[in-house]
């Protein structure tokens, strides 16, 4: 084994780990330029209507208050791509919590006091925020998110279902869910003449820069966006959010650097959430346990600001072989905050429903649920007919079953009691697509023997900079510590965001190409390097993202064990084990963290995470981390992630599939299926809180 064989895949520690644990890593709120002001936004206190009056006199009289911006005096902006960014541009209120003002002050406390002193009056209209499966406003959209057709159909799903020997016809509900990253959405902006510099808590600086250019009518080269450290995002920072627009606006109006750090309780309304999904599943099977029909129909909502259609029926197009298949989405536009991306959008809620229904079918058939999935393994991708570039779902199921001790399981529900606890176990499959986008990168060999690699990647806590350094070291054939890396600066060049589990593939392909090109230049060069070194650039826009003749997806299997307390109704996950097939694993340490992070988020989805839309008040009830409980250490007893070796030459130079999202896909179904096994009762609405379970 050579030194470079070892670098890719090695469990390398993250490069910024020390900075993070010693508190020296700087986040977007932590750039205190001289004269920096702070700002506090004002959310609308009605659901639907318009602002009829603004009285800022009392606020402006408070010590330290510099300015109050509302639609009456805020600068007019250009049209953004994303209409949720058109803040303070008019009196219209599309949902409760929409920002109607911003107070800028010398301190955060003064800004907050100023916001409380602004008097705003409204005219209201009746609102509708309640999603039902039969909502009269629900329609079939042109497409679901990701450009997927809203409806697909193969064979005769209704006829085949009616003729099936065994049938399951069930409805599942996933509530609205919120991303709630540790670091709330924050931006610090300052202007230097007609140059704008922003430190933003974002999953990608290129998209932020492009929107700011549209909004402020500036050429992109006058704007710099940096996101050196980001405290999580889970999709909610995948697109620019109102705070970056407000910060840039306030900085221009006051002539001061301005930080806008959104208070956590304002996040649920303005930075997106996973839309609720109502699922109807109809599964028909023959006597041999083979699917004869699969119908997955989803109803969801979007806001009145823009259309967002959670593509939750899409994974049913990938998973199982069946002669008859229908998948369909309907959406209703309601007076709700705009839903957006949340970890494994589409796959996460869709696979909760599909994998729960598969468990019901296994029970109806009297077939082991692992075996049922293996029996329905397709020859090619069911919807497209394309061959899979690689698919090791069966290996994940078998390896997971072996590690979990599945064969010792008594299949009868409610067969295991320990004192007040009912014990059960469950299984579910996982899938997530392989995505990749164009990116630019450069690599420079320096006279001191080191290398400088530059790519506008964002490290949102995943270890991206570490893995990219490994990719570069591998391609250059140099020890890892010789590679320096610059990331997270829009000035470096175009890069896609950290999202869609595509960051490493997209940035890494460009880094790899730049390093290979540099190797070529170095081979031609003999003797001492010039002072500035020798450099090479790469731009993957000609190749990355092109349509593949293969269906490319990662797969996985989750196994859960639960204890259900018959006295309190509390469900505890005592064990959660995942096995994944995701191409080549590039860093065993950070990959494991990604898998178990996703699984933990799935555990929260199963048991505690819940955003309830109050139909009268028109807002989410849970607006802090006390009411919206994400799993803490005490909730996670025994969690393991493993992977099977998978070689796939149809992916990218590294042979990797994305790993950021697949951990959450299917994990809630595994927990729910375990609760059914423990109790004999099928709960079809998440989360499985004591009030539902008892
Ligand atoms: Mo993720 S929801 O693709 O940032």
Automatic annotation (TrEMBL):
Domain Aldehyde oxidase/xanthine dehydrogenase a/b hammerhead: start-end pairs: 22-126
Compositional bias of kind Basic and acidic residues: 12-21
Source taxon at top rank: Bacteria
Keyword Oxidoreductase: yes
Stored SUPFAM superfamilies: CO dehydrogenase molybdoprotein N-domain-like, Molybdenum cofactor-binding domain
Keyword hit for Signal: no
Record-linked InterPro entries: Ald_Oxase/Xan_DH_a/b, Ald_Oxase/Xan_DH_a/b_sf, Ald_Oxase/xanthine_DH-like, AldOxase/xan_DH_MoCoBD1, AldOxase/xan_DH_MoCoBD2, AldOxase/xan_DH_Mopterin-bd_sf
Disordered, as annotated region: 1-21
UniProt keyword list: Molybdenum, Oxidoreductase
Designated name of the protein: Xanthine dehydrogenase family protein molybdopterin-binding subunit
Source organism of the structure: Streptomyces rubrogriseus
């Amino acid at each position: 084994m050579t030194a470079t064989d070892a670098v890719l895949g090695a469990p390398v520690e993250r490069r910024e780990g020390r900075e993070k644990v010693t508190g020296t890593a700087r986040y977007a709120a932590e750039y205190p330029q001289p004269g920096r002001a702070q700002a506090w936004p004002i959310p609308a206190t009605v659901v639907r209507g318009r602002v009829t009056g603004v009285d800022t006199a009392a606020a402006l009289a408070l010590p330290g208050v510099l300015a109050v911006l509302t639609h009456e005096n805020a600068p007019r902006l250009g049209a953004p791509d994303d209409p949720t960014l058109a803040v303070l541009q008019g009196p219209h209120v599309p949902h409760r919590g929409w920002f109607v003002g911003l107070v800028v002050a010398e301190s955060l406390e003064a800004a907050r006091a100023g916001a409380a002193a602004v008097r705003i009056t409204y005219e209201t209209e009746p609102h509708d925020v309640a999603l039902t499966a039969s909502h009269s406003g629900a329609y079939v959209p042109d497409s679901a998110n990701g450009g997927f057709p809203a409806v697909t159909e193969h064979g005769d799903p209704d006829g085949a279902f009616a003729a099936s020997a065994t049938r399951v016809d069930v409805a599942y509900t996933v509530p609205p869910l919120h991303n709630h990253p540790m670091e709330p959405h924050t931006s610090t902006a300052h202007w230097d003449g007609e140059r704008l510099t922003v430190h933003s808590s974002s999953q990608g600086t290129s998209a932020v820069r492009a929107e700011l250019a549209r909004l402020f009518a500036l050429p992109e080269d006058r704007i710099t966006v940096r996101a050196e450290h980001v405290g999580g995002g889970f999709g909610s920072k995948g697109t620019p959010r109102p705070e970056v627009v407000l910060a840039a606006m306030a900085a221009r109006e006051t002539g001061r650097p301005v930080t806008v750090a959104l208070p956590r309780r304002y996040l649920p309304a303005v930075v997106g959430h996973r839309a609720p999904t109502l699922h109807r599943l109809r599964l028909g099977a023959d006597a041999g346990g083979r699917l004869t029909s699969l119908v997955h129909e989803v109803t969801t909502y979007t806001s009145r600001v823009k259309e967002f259609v959670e593509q939750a029926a899409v994974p049913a197009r990938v998973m199982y072989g069946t002669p008859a298949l229908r998948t369909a989405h309907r959406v209703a536009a309601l007076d709700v905050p705009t839903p957006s991306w949340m970890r494994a959008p589409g796959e996460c809620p869709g696979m909760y429903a599909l994998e729960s229904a598969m468990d019901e079918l296994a029970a109806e058939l009297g077939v082991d649920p692992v075996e049922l999935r293996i029996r329905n393994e397709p020859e090619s991708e069911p919807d497209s007919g394309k061959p899979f570039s690689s698919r090791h779902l069966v290996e994940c199921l078998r390896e997971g079953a072996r590690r979990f001790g599945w064969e010792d399981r008594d299949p009868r529900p409610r067969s295991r009691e320990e004192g007040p606890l009912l014990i059960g176990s469950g299984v579910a499959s996982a899938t997530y697509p392989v995505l990749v986008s164009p990116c630019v990168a450069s690599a420079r060999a320096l006279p001191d023997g080191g290398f400088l690699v530059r790519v506008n990647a964002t490290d949102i806590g995943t270890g991206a900079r570490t893995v990219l350094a490994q990719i570069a070291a591998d391609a250059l054939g140099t020890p890892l510590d010789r590679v320096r890396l610059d990331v997270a600066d829009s000035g470096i060049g175009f890069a896609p965001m950290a999202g869609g589990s595509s960051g490493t593939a997209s940035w890494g392909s460009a880094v790899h190409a730049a390093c290979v090109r540099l190797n070529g230049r170095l081979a031609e060069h003999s003797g001492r390097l010039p002072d500035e070194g020798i450099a090479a650039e790469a731009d993957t826009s000609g190749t990355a993202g092109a349509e593949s003749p293969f269906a490319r997806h990662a797969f996985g299997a989750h196994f859960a064990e639960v204890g259900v307390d018959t006295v309190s109704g509390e469900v505890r996950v005592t064990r959660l084990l995942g096995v994944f097939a995701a191409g080549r694993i590039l860093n065993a340490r950070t990959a494991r963290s990604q898998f178990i992070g996703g699984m933990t988020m799935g555990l929260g989805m199963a048991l505690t995470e819940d955003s309830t839309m109050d139909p009268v008040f028109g807002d989410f009830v849970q607006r802090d981390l006390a009411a919206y409980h994400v799993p803490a250490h005490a909730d996670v007893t025994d969690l393991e992630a493993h992977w099977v070796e998978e070689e796939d030459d149809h992916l990218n130079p590294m042979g990797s599939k994305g790993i950021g999202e697949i951990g959450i896909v299917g994990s809630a179904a595994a927990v729910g299926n375990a609760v059914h096994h423990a109790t004999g009762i099928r709960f079809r609405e998440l989360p499985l809180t004591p009030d539902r379970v008892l």
